[in-house]
Queue: 3 jobs
Job 1
Amino acid sequence: MSKLTHLDADGRASMVDVTDKDTTFREAVVRGRVRMQPETLKLIIEGGHKKGDVLTVARIAGIQAAKRTHELIPLCHPLMLTGIKVELTPNEADSCVDIEARCKVSGQTGVEMEALTAASVAGLTIYDMCKAVDRGMTIDAIHLVEKKGGKSGHWQLGED
């Protein structure tokens, strides 16, 4: 395992200097899910929630969060994202909403944090909109499943 990179020569926290890194295409894909009662999922699917279209609001929240990741995560570089996609798929078999966030950039550093933030905030938004009817929801298994580009190249979950 490589050493942590957010420490300077004196061991203090610092933003990584990417000045000398090449600008390359980079992409990250993150997945997660929000588990809930079947009745809650039914409300979401049928659009019967009194707060409105839960999935559309959560998708927009995830996109906005990805764009502002550098404001939320200390030492994270501000990136000019070229693509953000947040997919929210109702899964009746598991009584959940599956989340997939995909972020793209041509830059000097990766977009894993942006995709993780997008998926997390989308899940939190679903929870916020539905908590009045289901306080037992859980936001589970938010994890990186694939990254492309940069010095380390292509990585996919399960290929370690």
Note: The chain has one domain: 24-156.
Job 2
Amino acid sequence: MNSPRPPGLPVLRRPVMIVAFGGWNDAGDSATGAVEHLALTWEATDLQEIDGEEFYDFASTRPTIAQVDGVTRRIQWPSTSVSYATLPDSERDVVFVLGPEPNLRWRTFSTQLVDLAEALGVELVVMLGALLADTPHTRPVPVSGSAETKSAATRFGLSPSKYEGPTGITGVLQDAFVQAGVPSISLWAAVPHYIAHPPNPKAVLALLDRLEAVIEVSIDTGPLAEQAQQWQEAVDEMMSDDDDMAAYVRELEETEDAASSDDEGALTEVDGDTLAAEFERYLRRRNEGQ
């Protein structure tokens, strides 16, 4: 049963909710970069902000100081923003959820977003993520997809999720939507682990290409194709000065070629071992930095 519509909410047409969180879910800032691109391109309107006081440990996810007119300084507190865009050339509208991964009270946090989605009449939730992987930067960015139910997997041509192990807020939130009866799927881009520093426009572009096919809405990628080409050329140049690194990339290419299946280009399930290993590496890096 849908939650009652709180006053002041917009009336949206067959809305899809697109969600991305910074942190271990977001290698190369690729997932959040994709949502930021869409929100800017489609001129999203702010809907609400989920106050970070209840959900963030400010010693781990720290506030930042920003200059205002070069004179005063302002504290920017971690929070999760919700915005929406009406698309005149499409039969559906879009809701965006964007913010750092919460540190605290994930169940309460998820309940708030589920209630909002139900009040807005959201028909589909797409969780975007990116993980570090043994993939060469010279090849198309692999994008894996999974769904929590067989019906959603069949509808969107994805694999039913079989992953077991550690998860982030994306996994918790996806499960909360499924339990509430809101179809939810995930798309993950694989970012080369040896070039983890953001931004990664090639991975952003790959996520948007897959997303376009899933939600059946045309996406203007603007300058991303050119930026992705410039990014790859810069990495190629860097690799040309390092024989060991160039040899390693060739090894990754050979491994990927050997593992290629007949279903090239199809969305496959997120590799659970890779995801768990990346989660553990992220925790170690965060603990070492404290």
Note: The first helix runs from residue 30 to 41.
Job 3
Amino acid sequence: MAKNCVWESRADGRSGYDMRKVSFQRGFSCYAEGSCLVSFGKTKVLCTASVEEKVPPFLRGSDRGWVTAEYSLLPRSTSTRVPRDISRGKLNGRSSEIQRLVGRSLRAAVDMESLGERTIWIDCDVLQADGGTRSAAVTGGFVALVDALRHLWRIGKLKSIPLRSYVAAVSVGKISGKLLTDLCYDEDSRAEVDMNVVMDGLGRLIEIQGTGEKDTFSRDEMNGMLDLAFRSVEELIVLQERALEMDGEEMEAIASS
């Protein structure tokens, strides 16, 4: 990717290649089997993983598990108050689309047969939104999911930790013809092209959501944005690994799954 295709300096001092500061605070909730407060800069999402000893009707008797997600913006997570979905009597389209993305992404991380007939719910509540909330939800939701799987293994409900791969996501885009990664809200609102990329720990793509919001984009520009996404997801997975602090016994339990 040519250097002149990427922003050399952004409003917050980052280059086009740079992520915002990312952090994971595990165990944020004392009740959930797994939980994580994830921060992408000013964007903060509380992700919890809750285990239910049952599966949806279409999986009953299949000996397979399920991972699903819900997503919501808290009322004052943005510059103006967002009404709760319950006050409207239905889930809004954006929340529905994002929670389906999170569910699809995290199902790619788990061996459903080894999970057995149980469901893990990933609830993603946006406490503060400054762009990239769906990427943060996927990335932090993965950390909460892994802790829930570790919990099930530790208490003897799983013979191994049924983790297939790490999973993380990032937003990339184009502004004034320049490419950049991990868009904050101001950048996202001005972007000609906005793309969300979900990948696993082996560099394989799980999902790409790319939209020409205000302009078209070329094949070369798409490849450039994917290059940025690959680089950023690699960084995110290193941070996930550090946050999760797997010991040797847990690594063996994953390998035996």
Note: The mean pLDDT is 94.
